[in-house]
Amino acid sequence: xxxxxxxxxxxxxxxxxxxxxxxxxxxxxxxxxxxxxxxxxxxxxxxxxxxxxxxxxxxxxxxxxxxxxxxxxxxxxxxxxxxxxxxxxxxxxxxxxxxxxxxxxxxxxxxxxxxxxxxxxxxxxxxxxxxxxxxxxxxxxxxxxxxxxxxxxxxxxxxxxxxxxxxxxxxxxxxxxxxxxxxxxxxxxxxxxxxxxxxxxxxxx
Length: 205
Prior knowledge:
The protein is an all-alpha fold. The chain contains 6 helices and no strands.
């Protein structure tokens, strides 16, 4: 059973934790709770209207509890309203405290992008990919402290023992695309250097 949140958001967080995420679920929940809130509010109003002591004892708690249920109903159906006016893609995307923190990028995707953009060499790419695969396999690349760059991996490759290599990993479409782009870039650089070398002697002559 899921535990209630303890993130300091209070009653609102508890309501979001125990209410459905979808539109239909929130509307059903709101109709049931809202109906109960209406009934209790009317009972409370009727009790207070009698002016008798018994009516007062029954009316005040009923009215207070009914108003509290109205607040719960409003909090439950509020994301539905936000999705209707276009502020949310859907009620399921609404959650207290979520969306405030940027999710961390996948280190493998960052590494593949850097390799495709030519920021790192093929040797560095394979070395760092080996480190990521070793971490995924439950082993640390090394026992000592090593510097970590923005891609989330270490720039050195001094892990002892057997390791999972990039050749052992399944080659994804992204990885193939990254390698192909890097290969074309290297071929383009080599061709440009060759053409430049051929033009320079002709100028001297």
